[in-house]
Amino acid sequence: MKTDPISWRRVTVNVFTVLARWLLGVIFLYMGLSKALHPVDFLKLLRQYDLTQSLLLLNSLAAILPWFEVFCGLLLLTGIAVRGTALTLAVMLVPFTGVVLHRALLLQAAQNIPFCAVKFDCGCGAGEEFICRKLLENFLLIFVCLWLLAGRGRQLSLRFSLFKSNSPGNGAPVSDPARMG
Predict the structure, then answer these.
(1) Strand pairing partners for 128?
(2) How far is CA 62 from the centre of its chain?
(3) DSSP characters for 76-113?
(4) I want to staple 134 with a disulfide (CB 3.0 to 4.6 A). Which of 126, 129, 148, 161 is the partner?
(5) 26 with 77: CB under 8 angstroms?
(6) Alpha-carbon span 72 to 85, nearest angstrom
(7) Confidence band (pLDDT; 50, 70, 90) for 4?
(8) How many CA atoms lie within 13 A of 126 on its CB side?
(9) Is the dihedral of CA 102, 124, 91, 62 positive or negative?
(10) b/e map of 93-109 (b: 16 or more CB within 10 Å)?
(11) pLDDT on residue 180
């Protein structure tokens, strides 16, 4: 029996993508819950970034963000609105990574230590981490988000997109007169 190498490659990519989607979902579910269950600790960590002087905005962010991460993690695990969720997470991760990088650079300058020796709790829910590891982790998470945003990860999804597409091959009816008659 001869197997088609292209189909094996496609199956491998599909399996990898579903596993990556599930892993991303579990990560955001875990990180969100760890913040939601310890809201005061998360608020203290947010205050260290000095993002805003508005206590209302800071408290709102500390109250809403963890549950939003949990919600996004659940959407990824179930495969509902995968592309929209991936876009949302990428839009959250990119500025967060920039803020973490900025804080690490400030700590490096203040402590006069090598950049990769900087270690602090960034507020992600995993405790203290070395900055080089955290940045690599964030870039990998952003890559997975962009991979899913490109339309990967449709397998084992309850509803990959919220809106139906009219392009052929997506399960939507095609309004081609030649096919109707």
Answers:
(1) 121
(2) 18
(3) HHHTBSHHHHHHHHHHHHHHHHHHHHHHHHHHHHHHT-
(4) 129
(5) yes
(6) 6
(7) low
(8) 14
(9) negative
(10) beebbeebbebbeebbe
(11) 37
